[in-house]
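FAQ
Q: What does a multi-component entry look like?
A: The components come first, one per line:
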Amino acid sequence: MHHIAKLILASSLLFAPIANAQTPPAAFAPGVEASIAQVLPHMLAWRRDFHEHPELSYEEVRTARVVAAHLRALHLDEVRTGVAVTGVVGVLRGGRPGPVIALRADMDALPVTEEVDLPFASRVRGRYNGQDVGIMHACGHDTHVAVLMATASVLAERRAELAGTVIFVFQPSEEGAPPGGLGGARRMLAEHVFGDLHPEAIFGLHAWPQASGTVKIMSGPFMAGSDRLRISVIGRQTHGAQPHRGIDPIVISSQIINALQTIPSRQMDAVGSPVIVTIGSIHGGVRYNIIPDRVEMEGTIRYLNPETRDDLYARVRRTVDDIAASAGATAEVSIESNAIPVVNPPELTARARAALARMLGEGSVQGGAPGMVAEDFAFFQQAVPGVFFYYGVNPPGVSPTEAAPNHSPRFFVHEPALETALRAMLAVTLDRVGPAQP
Ligand code: NI
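Then the predicted structure of the entire assembly, as tokens:
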């Protein structure tokens, strides 16, 4: 995928604005700045507490309890729990009329055993897929929850001045849908997360290994669609020495695996429609001299451009079916969508970017290339115009390539970065519902 990413980077650099004057960050109104200063130590304490007590998808019971208690203590106008099992929704109505804005944080951790040496490192273990596993906030969702709680604190204190309504969405189960079920974003939407409110925009952010103090925001496709691919190749069992008496699904599977790789490399536009087809597991056969009846394969499909999805699926199905048919075998293909691409709408993104540049400083706002990881925030964007962006969590001096990636047991968040995330959330929110900007 590196070569494609570089191509996109190279092409997008042509259009990237030249960073000239390094405008300094602006301050929020004095009252807001005072609230920020006051909430900072609490935000770090909340984050450390969540980090030490991570919970897997749809098991965020303790996290949800802490969040709900906080929102109730702020006397929000509405606090709903149990939305999509463990999700929490808070509604803050400002003292003046204005638009409805939604802010989202995901709450779940991963089946990863922490290897970071921290006083608040996770020692929690649990069950995942029938296995005993360590549990860790290896994707930084602990920070997302703490930052949104702090955002709620600051906004609740300024509620009389706010022109509009803010919905705080604490989402469970971002890390993947349970088999046959819905992930957190889709399930919250199915359960009418916004009630009778109609947000005109939703914002979300994610911890990412880039320089602390920076954010990354771009319009258009930003993160990939992610699908689970299952293929069964059905042949006919025979003796290993008499292949002509049967139909060999193992040889057919090897042809299919190779042919699938020609879809990204030979059939799709490498720059306009980056695609990955990965086969992650293959099972067939029980004995060295028996050609088996069938082979089962599983994998993932990633794509950035939503418009090419149907065409991509058709190519995958055609490749599998036609290769199987050419050998007299049959095949079954199932493609299940985990997430659709995160696509940031240009106008909304431009306005959010301007707000971030104003409040963080132009030099702190990065663009760049999209990536092939996925985020189910995309489903909120289907329902409400939404912008998703990254905030950097690397300690000073650690480059993006040196830093442990998300989902690594060594994933590390430099804590001062949380203030940037808080200021970023406040910047995009107050741009919509705040008192008139200078
Ligand atoms: Ni994540």
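Q: Is there any commentary attached?
A: Sometimes. For this entry: Residues 225-337 form a domain with the Alpha-Beta Plaits fold (CATH 3.30.70.360).
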